[in-house]
TrEMBL record:
Keyword Disulfide bond found: yes
Biological classification of the source: Bacteria, Pseudomonadati, Bacteroidota, Flavobacteriia, Flavobacteriales
Keywords: Cytochrome c-type biogenesis, Disulfide bond, Redox-active center
InterPro entries: AhpC/TSA, Thioredoxin-like_sf, Thioredoxin_CS, Thioredoxin_domain, Thioredoxin_ResA/DsbE_sf
Highest taxon listed in the record's lineage: Bacteria
SUPFAM superfamilies found in the cross-reference section: Thioredoxin-like (SSF52833)
Domain Thioredoxin: from-to ranges: 1-121
Protein name, UniProt field: TlpA family protein disulfide reductase
């Protein structure tokens, strides 16, 4: 999967893992954002720092994460996480339509407000 192929007007890259309680707690908020704003141009890419494929896939189904997901199942050695300098999860990166990072580590109402601002451009 290519990032360029996955870009929308706004793309959220969400670094998470099935074993991460704060990540799982945030997932319902991300699901709500996706349901509300995907049709308006929001894309999400989930990048997992899991090691166990079965637990990762089970969490995707259980949490109803309907967007594209990637993982190399390498835990903290996940190459995509290293490329983005991720040191803790959950960690989010908001990209504009050109793939430029415009915000990092926003959650809840703050994340939604920034996405709406970007979609309005």
């Amino acid at each position: 999967m290519s990032l360029k192929q996955s870009l929308g007007k706004v793309t959220l890259i969400d670094f998470w893992a099935s074993w991460c309680a704060p990540c799982r707690k945030e997932n319902p908020n991300v699901v709500a954002l996706y349901k509300e704003l995907h049709s308006k141009g929001l894309n999400i890419i989930g990048v997992s720092l899991d090691k166990d494929a079965a637990k990762w896939k089970e969490a995707i189904v259980k949490d109803q994460l309907q967007w594209n997901h990637v993982s190399n199942l390498q835990f903290w050695d996940e190459p995509i996480a290293k490329e983005y300098g991720v040191e803790s999860i959950p960690s989010t990166f908001l990209l504009d339509s050109k793939g430029t990072i415009v915000a990092k580590n926003l959650y809840g109402a703050e994340l939604k407000a920034k996405i709406l601002e970007l979609l309005a451009k």
